[in-house]
Write a structure and sequence with these properties.
The chain is mainly α. The chain has 2 domains: 111 residues, Voltage-gated potassium channels. Chain C (Four Helix Bundle (Hemerythrin (Met), subunit A), Up-down Bundle), CATH 1.20.120.350; 116 residues, Helix Hairpins, CATH 1.10.287. The chain is built from 11 helices and no strands. α3 packs across α5. It is flat, with a radius of gyration of 34 Å. The mean pLDDT is 81.
Length: 276
């Protein structure tokens, strides 16, 4: 029985069905944010939502039954289980605020789609490198904020009146929001401020932030290499078996060739012998 359940859970149609339900559930959760749709079809939306949640519960139960301990040794299985448990929390009374957490069910796509799992795995591998770059960016932001507060406090107090305001303003410029209007406000009275803002934008946006992208891309490449290596390892026994069969076929062909070569002289002697 357990073997049959394992086959069903691992079947491609079963996985695709789970992905389809996740997408349908995402559409339903979005539809429930529309007052008009809730007023006209609220009961239907709620019923469909409960039905899909029930299917998710059954799916998790089948996976636990099929894999037993192996289910709890897999991090993605724990991820799916926690999301379903959160969805089962009551949505009324003091826990009504947790109703918004139902949308986390959409995150099950991360575990249901293999390519998304690889992307998330690569991003987790990039976290150590990103932490180092975050420290570098924080130091840059702090130094620039101290300098900006000292130089531009009197010129633009609304942007650089104190250290906290300067940090927020420079972070805003780093993200590309108002990166032109804020420097121009300062440059109207201090034209030389252009040098500071140009150097800061070059250092923060074009160098530091691109380092995050470089680290993430490198981690994703390593993740792809690991996936290819795992696939090759899984395919190794099959490849070895194929090579063994081909070797046997070549040996059989060689033996047949030897037998034919041994029979040819006897056939020639038989044809050359005089008939009575």
């Amino acid at each position: 029985m357990r073997e049959r359940v394992q086959e069903v859970v691992a079947a491609r149609w079963f996985q695709r069905g789970v992905i389809a339900l996740i997408l349908v559930n995402a559409v339903l959760l979005g539809a429930e944010t529309s007052p008009g749709l809730v007023a006209s079809h609220g009961e239907l939306l709620h019923t469909l939502d409960l039905a899909i949640l029930g299917v998710f519960v059954v799916e998790i139960a089948l996976r636990i039954y099929a894999h037993r301990g192996a289910f709890f040794r897999d991090a993605w299985s724990w991820f799916d289980l926690l999301i379903v448990l959160v969805a089962l929390l009551p949505a009324s009374g003091p826990l009504s605020v947790l109703r918004v957490l139902r949308v986390l069910r959409v995150l099950r796509l991360l575990s249901a789609v293999p390519s998304l799992r690889h992307v998330v795995g690569g991003l987790f591998k990039a976290l150590p490198g990103m932490a180092s770059i975050s420290i570098l960016v924080s130091l840059l932001l702090y130094i620039a904020a101290v300098m900006a507060t000292t130089m531009f406090r009197a010129t633009a107090p609304q942007h650089f009146g104190d250290l906290a305001t300067s940090v927020f303003t420079l972070f805003q410029i780093m993200t590309g929001d108002s990166w032109g209007s804020i420097p121009r406000t300062v440059m109207e009275e201090q034209p030389a401020a252009a040098v500071f803002f140009v150097l800061y934008i070059l250092a923060s946006t074009f160098i530091a932030l691109n380092l995050f992208i470089a680290v993430a891309v490198e981690a994703l490449e390593h993740e792809q290499d690991d996936v290819r290596a795992a696939s090759a390892a899984d395919a190794g026994p099959n490849t070895a078996g194929t090579e063994a069969i081909m070797a046997e076929l070549r040996a059989l062909r060689a033996e047949l060739a030897e037998l034919r070569a041994a029979r040819e002289p006897a056939d020639e002697d038989a044809r050359a012998a005089p008939r009575p």
